[in-house]
Amino acid sequence: MAPIENPLKQIHSIMNDENAVLIYSGEFNQEIVKSMLNYTEGKLESSGIDDLVRKKIFNVMVEQLQNITKHQYTDDEKSVVQPCFVLIEQENHYNLVTGNPIHVDTIQMVSDRINQVNSLNADELKDLYKQARLNSRISEVGGAGLGFIDVARKTENKLDFGFYDIDSANYKYFTLKTQINKIIQ
Amino acid sequence: MEHLVIAKTDDTPEIDFNPGTKEMKISGRSLPEDVTTFYAPVLEWLDELEETPSGAYKFIVNLEYFNTASSKLILDILMRLEDIHTGGNNTIEIIWNYDKRDTDMEEAAEEYSELVEVPFQIVGI
Hints:
The structure holds 2 protein chains of 2 kinds. By secondary structure, chain A is an alpha+beta fold. In chain A, about 45% of the residues lie in helices and about 20% in strands.
């Protein structure tokens, strides 16, 4: 899979694409996440999509959106680039792209976790998920630390990610792109 | 033991734990922002059940979707049910209903059933 290009350039090109289902940039909270989910479900339902694909998109979208909701805040507010979410329909699949500022100190950890997930096959992901869930504690921001594993399992595709420079010494912009196939095996 | 009822919302499931019928039902979607707070009364109810000899209970799952944080809390609930079942005061049977086309949910139910020593039926509907 090709790496994500400059995120702002990519979002601009997506906005001109007629197949974008939803584009959002701004603050993320639970109410906004629910609105985005309701809107997307309605739009997908009226498009005649396979129920199972719709469900998968819903599942993966929740994890990606709640991940931003829990991790969007930065401590140097003036240089912050807004988080974003894009859902786009391609010929054979859907892409879900999120972007949010990430502290440079957490980049290595996030990068290691995604690389680990990407290196595993379906059975290994299942084992990792079961083990990680047994050992998991709900964090202060309400996460279980299982999102990347779950998204990799549900999409059955590798996670595409990158970290881009923004106007900040302490933050970069983290993008995560997932892919859901229209034909489920 | 009181009848525990929590109405469903866009992001939380319906909870209906009825000591009269001895059925504990969870239905709908679970993606709350704060899973710990949402599930606290459920776990408290189960603590009380563990102390109260009252018979054979069924835990009936009709979940359409849950997020990863809920997945951890559901595991906590199932482990509490296992404690109750093995504790001797009451018996538990788990019935997990799912949309039979939804293989992700079927797999999720199977994974839970492998983790707890409680009679566990997985029913595709």
